[in-house]
Amino acid sequence: MKNKGQFFEIYLVVFMGFLCAFIIYTYFVQQSEARSSLVSPNTILELRDDLELFEIREKEIILETLKETKNTFEISDTFTQQFTNELIKKIKSEEQMKEFLFKDYIYENEARANEEDFIKSIYSAEYNEKEKTIILNRAKLEKRKYLNAKKENKINFPVEVSFTTSKTYLISFKENKFIIGEK
Fold this sequence. Notes:
The chain has helices spanning 2-32, 42-70, 77-93, 95-102, 108-113, 115-122; strands at residues 123-128, 133-147, 159-174, 177-182. By secondary structure, the protein is an alpha+beta fold. It has a four-stranded antiparallel beta sheet with strand order 1-2-3-4.
C-alpha cells in the first residue's frame, strides 16, 4: 500500500511539470505569431530634438540680425520693422531652418508655395517704448504625423500625433549688448 502512494506523488509532480512546460511553450508560440505590432515613440523624440536645435539656431540668427541692424538704425519702431524684415530674409536663406518650419506642417504644400508670406506670418515683433524692449513672437505651428509600427506585415494601428510649438522672445539692449530672454 505504501508504494502506491509514493508512485501517485511522483506522477503528480511529473504531470504538473509537463503542464507548466506546455503552458510556457504555448505562450512563446502565440507571441511569435502575434499579428499586431507596437508604435515606437522615437519619431516624437527626434522632433523634440529638432525643435531644440532649431531654437538654438534661431537665437543665433536673432542675435546676428540685431547686431547688423543696430549698425544702421537706432532702436525704435523703425529698427524693429527693419530687424523683422532682415530676420525673415535670413531664416528664408537657411535650408535647415525652412525645413523644420515646413516639415510635417498641416498645410505644408501651401506654405512651401508661398514661402516668404508663410515665414512673415510666423514672425512678428513689437517695440515697447516704455521698457525699451522688443517682443519677438513666433506664432503657433502645428505639426502632425502618423506613427506606424516598424513591422508592416503585422496588424498595427497608426497613431496620429499633433505637436504644437510657439515661442516669445524678450529682447533688451543694455550696456551695448543685446540680451535675449524668453517670455
